[in-house]
Write the structure tokens for this entry.
Amino acid sequence: MQNGQLLAAIDLGSNSFRLEIGVLEHGHIRRVEYLKETVRQGNGLDAERMLSQEAMVRGWECLARFSERLSGFGTKHVRAVATQTLREAKNREEFLSHAEKLLGFPIEVISGREEARLIYSGVVNLLPQSEEKRLVVDIGGRSTEVILGKGFKPQTLESYRVGSVKWSMKYFADGQFTPLAFDRAEVAAKAVLDEALALYPQNSWDVAYGSSGTIGAVTDVLQAAGWAEEGITRDGLVWLKEKLIKAGRTDSLRLEGVKEDRKPVIGGGLAVLCALFDLMQIDTMHAAQGALRHGVLYDLLQREDNTDLRSTMVLALGNRFTVDSAQAARVQKTSLALFKGVQDTPLIEQSRVARLVKKLSWASHLLEIGTRISHSDFHKHGAYILENADLLGFSMQELQRLGLLVLGHRGKLRKLEADFEEVEFVKMLIALRLAVILCHARKNPDQTGLEFSCNDKSKTFTLEADADWIDSYPQSVHLLRQEVIAWQKTPWAFAFTQAARVKQPA
């Protein structure tokens, strides 16, 4: 990626939506523009985990405004991520489908551990280079991420379902600050965060940093009052809690440094922060400049510069489940050749093709991970592993789509809850299925005499084989004829035909 390139990150948080635009300058990203809107989408999540229409509308309106600023940006230079509220929402697809149309870019729902990884990256990339052991905490609207790392490398990543919006709704819903409410909120937070004691022992870090949201707001207040010269301290937190209790209510709170949009959620956020300080025996915490959105920007750089973490994680998962790497390589090579052969490249953006090729490569490598559980229906086991794995670098949608390719690479197609109108997905799927058939003997397939084509208008794939190939590989021919039948239950058709014999001159 060249100097001067503009990059954009959108963070769809539970409390705020944020847009960060930066420009690449010699490996670093300098801020060009920053937009933040308090959407408070987490408030719209009911007990059944359904996002209210009002909360969705607030989000859509914000993203429509962001879209105007992103006019002219290419897809590979923008990444939008959503966190805990949309992780939880049962009706998130309703929100996302309209949100993506308004924004003009895909929105990825990321796992808690992936959020933690990106937060750590955002924090450390805006800190001086150091080998110090760092504890990084981010208290969001509905989740709290805790990360332990050294230098640029995170070592322990966890996400806990406790946050400023969620705790404010639960323990300060009437807007009242009382000693009893704080006691209950802190005890409940400690119950959720209890396992952090074992994962993050006190002597495992040199410096503690707090990122974004709650910690930034608390720092602003304490600095204004002269309590945060060296960072957030226990005494400072006690002082702030007393100030809130003395005020009694949200609408009576008058503290320099507290913004109006932060007042409704400061009680819950402070309770969580106090619980973390007590539980983990933190003495001082420094406010960090970096946050999730900065980590997203630097992740864009890595993906573009062929240092994509996702490829590393795929190899690691394959090793963990002892996949046959030689067979995976055969299927990968064959499926990519088939897939590239049916691309109408003048009509498709080259970068998009490259991304699809990468995903097909990952799927090829992971087809047999389910065999470690059982050889019976191993494709189903593999799909389950992927849909429930916490693979760093991947969004939840990406893992679901990978799982769908693994599930669909063999057996009946009607079982797939897939959109067969999505042409590129169908092309990846059939490329995988045909590659597995051609590589069934677990050796490099003979593709001499084969020609694969696709008619997008008639939704028909055709594999043509010459007579010599058909005579030489009867088992492959049998499997390919079975494949013809498999596609009859879908909107697409697959034809396996014999090429006409060329008459030899007399």
